[in-house]
Amino acid sequence: MQSSPLVSAVIPVYNGERYLAEAIESVLAQDYRPVELIVVDDGSTDGSGDIARSYPLVRYIRQTNRGVSVARNAGIAAGRGEFIAFLDADDVWTPDKLTVQMEYLLTHPEVGFSFARQRFLFEQGIGAPPWFPQELLARDHVGFMPSTLVVRKAVFERAGGFDTALRRGEDTEWLLRAGDCGIQMGIVQETLLLRRVHSGNVSLMKPPDYRLLLSLLKQSIDRRKERGND
Fold first, then answer.
1. Could you tell me the pTM of the whole model?
2. Which of 5, 67, 154, 204 has the maximum number of C-beta atoms within 10 A of its C-beta?
């Protein structure tokens, strides 16, 4: 009987000791096998490294503080799996997360990567900012973010990794670039991620940077024009 392909799960962390253990344990609790777990410590000054090293099944990589894109790219490079999955250090996977998405990807070989639905998990005393779309709070929704993402590793060889020049919007930039390469995206409709909302959330607690988004969209349009002229 053919064995299932290896998935490399990558958790980038920077001073995430408060939540890291729960994130690690949600990967170790997956009902899919085989999985290797790589924690990339982006120069934490708290106890994140001690927490990661306390788990024998974790492959621990430490780097100087260079940002989440560099950390994710380091995890991709270190991963031995045919598939790469990501989990932010403050988020939690459901136990069937990889089983559901891997079944989808293995039965849809034309799809290069897939997202899934997510549910917000609010810390006590934390509410959504007033600018935040209320419809996203009322129901589970597709999370176009790394913590729901499972990718064939070959996709990174074709589209490249995350843009290390960006400190925000790097996931959006990668998604646009992968699409511009003609890589097909899939969406799994099950809710497979609990996305924690707390005061330190950079992407959730700050208003969207529309100037950055417009810049990324223009880059995408320019890439598509270049492809059309080839």
1. 0.90
2. 67
